Request: fold
Amino acid sequence: MRRRPCSARLWIFAALPMVVIVAKAAMFGAHAQRRGVSAQLS
Reply:
């Protein structure tokens, strides 16, 4: 396997949207979990 800077750059550009989606999903999950916990407490 050869490491090419252009392919590495492409991988980074391809991974960026995935990271954003995962981060949004994690934030949404944490928010929903927090809301669920507050609903259970009340």
Remarks:
- The mean pLDDT is 85.
